[in-house]
């Protein structure tokens, strides 16, 4: 049991509190898992809701409490720092979770101040902690969000990373990297629109897996770019029969386009073996395998972590064909060089292109992560080029627009390899040109997708051969 829930239940049992609100108690449990176990809120939330028996409006309240508290953490910390008599780094992490939770209710939800404060104090439990939480949140309640932003956000000069970081709740270094990436795409002035899009919860998108389901049997509005996708207006996607049966899945439209870009690229010669490197959890693998099966090809999926390899197998369970899932390191795939026709390298990255769906990623990453990640990405791409046959295709993709993970990896690969040619990629989508000519960069604020980057390579015979 998490510490916040322990404290609350102990005090409730002792008679010093009335009933602790179950929705807020569930929200604290999710926030604790995100902080202590590096969990993702969108994965933990359904489990916690089932455990607490929360549905309907109560489930919606928990979702808003959790997602809003995580997304707006940067803004709320600036406000809390102005309202606390002690530095935030000296506040116990569990108490800081509660302060952020209460601040979200005060500044972003239609919760009466007395209710937001009292329910948060109830969760805090002990007299000393409760008194501190009560005092800080009362100060927060003295102004609305806009008034607080006028006080705590640095004055906005032109291209002010610090101002935008506080207002839009992103780390300063992330704002700077996103601004650079947008400048490379001809849109440096769009940074506020991108940051705002990062804080807007996306609609759930489904994909009909070819040969298994038709898009017309899925509820929702057809996606504009993927002919297999629909966007749901609401509801639990698990109740859709095709999803429950594995004939369709939950998948962002940008991820669908990654699989389609590789599958639909023109290829001369044989086309019987496809490889998905870093395949977990398997959404793109399932779409690729479905497309491959329709052509009599098979997919080999490799994933370094055992538990993620199991997820890939589960995703492929309903797809017909002789597909294989291997637990293997993508930098050393257990395949004979030249034996593969198409390869997807969906490389590990900062995930800064998917902050709409996984907002906690912005608080977990540091600028120093970029160097190690870009080196890994280059190694994965090099291994894929080694294993694909001459004339074969490799699609490099990241869920990040950061130049160190896109332009740098592509440019360094082209310079180092005389057997790798960058093939111009055009998805027919406006304003999607990438930072290297012929590459593609999608954007949440432009296209309504995750910020997926795509670059297509052809393996050539080395000039020294």
UniProtKB/TrEMBL annotation:
Signal peptide: none annotated. This is rRNA cytosine-C5-methyltransferase. One of its GO terms (biological process) is regulation of DNA-templated transcription. Belongs to the class I-like SAM-binding methyltransferase superfamily. RsmB/NOP family. It comes from Nocardioides acrostichi. GO terms for molecular function: RNA binding; RNA methyltransferase activity. InterPro entries: MeTrfase_RsmB-F_NOP2_cat, MeTrfase_RsmB-F_NOP2_dom, NusB-like_sf, NusB_RsmB_TIM44, RCMT, RsmB/NOL1/NOP2-like_CS, SAM-dependent_MTases_sf. Pfam families: Methyltr_RsmB-F (PF01189), NusB (PF01029). It comes from the Bacteria. Residues 180-460 form the SAM-dependent MTase RsmB/NOP-type domain. The active site is at 399 (nucleophile). Keywords: Methyltransferase, RNA-binding, S-adenosyl-L-methionine, Transferase. S-adenosyl-L-methionine binds at residues 278-284, 303, 329, 346.
């Amino acid at each position: 049991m998490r510490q916040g829930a322990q404290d609350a239940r102990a005090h409730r049992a002792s008679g010093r509190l009335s009933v602790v609100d179950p929705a807020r108690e569930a929200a604290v449990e999710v926030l604790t898992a995100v902080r202590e176990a590096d969990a993702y809120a969108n994965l933990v939330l359904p489990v916690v809701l089932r455990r607490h028996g929360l549905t309907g409006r109560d489930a919606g309240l928990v979702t808003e409490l959790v997602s809003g508290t995580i997304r707006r953490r940067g803004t709320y910390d600036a406000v809390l720092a102005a309202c606390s008599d002690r530095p935030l780094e000296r506040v116990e992490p569990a108490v800081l979770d509660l302060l952020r939770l209460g601040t979200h209710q005060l500044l972003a939800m239609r919760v009466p101040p007395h209710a937001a404060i009292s329910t948060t104090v109830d969760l805090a439990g002990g007299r000393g902690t409760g008194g501190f939480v009560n005092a800080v949140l009362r100060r927060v309640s003295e102004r609305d969000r806009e008034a607080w932003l006028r006080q705590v956000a640095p004055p906005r000069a032109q291209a002010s990373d610090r101002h935008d970081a506080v207002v839009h709740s992103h780390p300063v270094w992330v704002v700077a990297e996103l601004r650079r990436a947008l400048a490379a795409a001809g849109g440096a002035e769009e940074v506020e629109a991108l940051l705002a899009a990062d804080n807007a919860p996306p609609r759930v998108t489904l994909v009909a897996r070819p040969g298994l389901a038709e898009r017309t049997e899925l509820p929702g509005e057809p996606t504009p770019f993927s002919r297999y996708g629909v966007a749901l207006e609401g509801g639990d996607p698990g109740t859709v029969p095709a999803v429950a049966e594995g004939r369709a899945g939950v998948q962002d439209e940008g991820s669908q386009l990654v699989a389609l870009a590789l599958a639909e690229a023109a290829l001369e010669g044989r086309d019987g073996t496809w490889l998905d490197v870093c395949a977990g959890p398997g959404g793109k693998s399932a779409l690729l395998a479905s497309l491959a099966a329709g052509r009599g090809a098979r997919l080999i999926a490799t994933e370094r972590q055992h538990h993620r390899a199991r997820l890939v197998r589960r995703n492929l369970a309903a797809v017909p064909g002789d597909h294989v899932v291997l637990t293997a390191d993508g930098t050393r795939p257990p395949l004979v060089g030249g034996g593969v026709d198409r390869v997807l390298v969906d490389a590990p990255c900062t995930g800064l292109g998917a902050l709409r769906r996984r907002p906690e990623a912005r608080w977990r990453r540091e600028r120093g992560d970029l160097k190690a990640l870009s080196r890994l990405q280059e190694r994965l791409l090099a291994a894929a080029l080694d294993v694909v046959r001459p004339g074969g295709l490799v699609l490099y993709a990241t869920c990040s627009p950061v130049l160190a993970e896109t332009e740098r990896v592509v440019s360094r690969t082209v310079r180092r390899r005389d057997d790798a040619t960058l093939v111009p990629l055009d998805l027919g989508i406006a304003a999607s040109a990438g930072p290297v000519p012929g590459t593609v960069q999608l954007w949440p604020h432009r296209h309504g997708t995750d910020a997926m980057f795509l670059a297509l390579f052809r393996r050539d015979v080395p000039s020294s051969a």
